[in-house]
Input
Amino acid sequence: MWLRHKTIVILLLIASAAVFAPSAWANDTEGLFVGVRFGHELADATYAKSVHYNAGVLAPPLEDGSVIAGEDSANDGFNAFSANLGYRAFLSDQVYLSGEVEGAVYSNAVQGFFEGTYTGDTNPIPSQHVFPGAWKVDKNHSLGFNARLGYVPQGFAFLGEGRSVYLISGVKWLDATFEAAFDNRGVGDDAIRGVTRKTRHAVPWLIGGGLEFGSSTNRFDVRIHYSNWSMDYAGGDGATEATAYVPNDFDVDEVGISLGYTRSFSLGM
Output
């Protein structure tokens, strides 16, 4: 994981250098560009929850501490709309490097139902139970930086003067909201239920590739990418039965496909 993140950072630094470096190979698509993008991200989200007690808190036979854990997963997707501003520089007559700042907003959510776990042969109590409940994940908005390494093929003239294929990597600062309900299904004073809602920030990375086509000024492209991100939160300290340490972890894998439009303000204009 550390090596993967380091590789992405290196690519981003290279792209940043290219933005300010003069190019010896002028091309009509070189220079500033702006764009918009619509896409859908298929997401596989895993929600893991556990209950922890410190040693000495519970009565025998659990006096040495107790940990009960469970998880649930769900598949759905997020709709995405983004806008970007960037700069493209050519490294040769057919190879270019570009860097871009991208902001995005999202809709839809991934949601599931955590069945809960229970150990023991008496009525469920907090020390023996990870309460069940519905959960969902919402992506709100993000701001990130992408680097593209592209190649302009000599053939395929039917794709237009602005044709290219490219690899892309990037990193984002994401704002997302997680909601998890819990319910011991008890009655009266024995009921323990509620909803936890948390907004957190994550740093997703992405890798992918795309095909660009159109004129040197106005271009479209189709892109596919993979991204991963995770968030967590916890409550309690595990020091008493009423204050169990309860960490909640969310891990999301995404495969996205999108269509983009780019307007180039090239050096040749």
Remarks:
- Residues 187 and 193 are 10 Å apart (CA to CA).
- The chain is about 5% helix and 65% strand.
- The two ends are 43 Å apart (CA to CA).
- Helices lie at 2-20.
